[in-house]
Structures are given as structure tokens and as C-alpha cells.
Amino acid sequence: MTYRNSALEKYSRGVYRTIFRRNTVFLAGIFATAFAFEMAFDTVTDRWWDRMNKGKQWKDIKDRFSQ
Amino acid sequence: MVHLTKLAAAAVNRTSINAPYSAVAVKKLFETSNYVRKESLEIFFTPSWAVGAKRRSDGSILSKTFVSAAPCVGNFQKRFSSSSAVVDSSKSTIVPDFSHYKKDSGPNTSRAFTYLMVGATGALTAAGSKAFVTDFLANLSASADVLAMAKVEVDLAKIPEGKNLTIKWRGKPIFIRHRTPDEIAEANSVQLSELRDPQSDADRTQKPEWLVMLGVCTHLGCVPIGEAGDYNGWYCPCHGSHYDISGRIRKGPAPLNLEVPVYSFEDETKLVIG
User: Nearest CA to CA, how far is B100 from chain A (Å)?
Assistant: First the structure.
């Protein structure tokens, strides 16, 4: 049977065979993805927070109070 | 009688007869089905196909046919609507073009997409749960200002050799003793086997000349007195526990040595407890 998007079909088959087929690989992939996602999410949100509060945080005004 | 009974049953069940046309027939059917006109049943004429059947003397049918004896008295009409005519379906049915609504991809893509969704849900759940637990535990732990207050700095240069200093740390007394070489030698000379709570002096001190201990008797929590007792160390006046020059229990009811807190030497003269 042929499909209009047979390239995607072929790619999907490969993805399934490499990642989803074995449960251990699938689960390891899930945890790796969760780890990566959390790091990326934290980095992005921290950067956003620092930008929103620029000049208000201790690390921004620390230089003014040199010991 | 049999066919009349069947007729009545059929009239009630409305299975194989159609609704009669005339008002007279409706009335007759109603009365018959409700047994109002029992005697009228007798005047129903015998159906044409049943004429040939052999009958008993009382009029009941002796020979039975395969045909159900329902209803074929004039006004009643057999229902034919359940039968369907044979039609050429290829000409009569026009199937619309559904290709626009169909997926471009096949079952492999669907399967991979489903697993991807399951995996993504799992990953998000894992990250979310981890963040929840971490934040919850971080909320329980002490904050930075509390931790800063929980430490005590001591200037050791002010304690001469052979003297005690008692300070307060987290609401409890801390004994700091600047021990003389004689005292260190005495603490090391004790056999571990004769101790109630065996602990060498090296285990209890980071630098032998500085003994740092929690000043709470391990018996019932009194504060021992320094430079007292049979072993020239500490003596608890409450119940008479004797501690030696390394703070180890030697005599009396206390079960354990005096506790050593976490401490560190910042430099030669600066001690940080906590």
C-alpha cells in the first residue's frame, strides 16, 4: 500500500524501531527528555526573570557595596 | 378454533397483520382482541386456503399446514413492506470523494505519533513531579539567613592554654578547651577497653590542643561543670557523671561521651561552629 507521504512513513518506521520498540529505550528516552526539558525550561525562565527584574536583584547591585 | 385463536393473538401482537382499513374492521378487531365479541368469532368465515383442510366435528382443523393461520380475512392485508426490491447498487449509490479528508500518512506514522505523544506526556509528568518534590523539600529546608545565624565564630587567640570557654550555639552551651600537652597525653593514654563509650581522642578532636564539645550531659541534659570531677575533666552536678579531659564518660549514669558538634578551623585563630 502506498501513501501520499511515504517519506514520513519511512521515517516514522525508523523512529519506532529505534526508540519506541524496546520499553527500556523508550523509558530512558523519556527521562532523558525530561532532564533536558527541565534544564532548558529553567534556563529560559531564569533568564526571563532576570530580565524582568533587571537592576533590582542583589547580584545586580552587589558592586555598589564593595567590601 | 385454533386459527381464530391465532388470529386474535396476531391482532394483539400486531405482527403479521396490517391495520385494517375500515372502521367496521377496526371495531371488529378491537372487540375481538379484547374478547368483547367472543361469539362473533364464530361468524368469521374460514380462509380460502384453509377450506381444504380436514376438520373435526367441532370445527377445529385436523390437518395442519405450514402456513400460519393469521389473517387473511377480506379486510386484513398481509404486510409486504419488509421485503426489499433488488437494486443495482453500483448505479443507485454515489459515494463521495473522501480523499481530501483522509490522512496522507500510513499506520507507521500514526503509531509513531501515538508513542511520541505518550512519551511527551511521560516526560512532562516526570519533570513536573520532580520540580514539585524538589520545591516542596526546598521549602522545608532552612533558608540562607537561618543557616547564617546557625553558625558561630570563635576567636581562639583569646583562650589561653589550659582554659575553658563556654559559648552559646543554637541555644546550647559549647565547651571549648585549649588543652595543654600534658592533658593531650593523658587523654591519649587511656585504654579504649576501659571506656563505656569507646572513642579515641583523635576521633573527638580535629586539632589535639582544641577540644570542642556540646556542653550537655548525655544523661538528662544538665550542663556539666568544667575542671571538675574524678578525671579532671567535667562533672555533671545533677546525677554525678564524670567526664575525662577528652569529654568521655568515665563514671556515673550518663551512657555516652559528650557530643562533638560540626566545626571547622577557618584559619589558625578562627573557629566556626555549625
Answer: 12
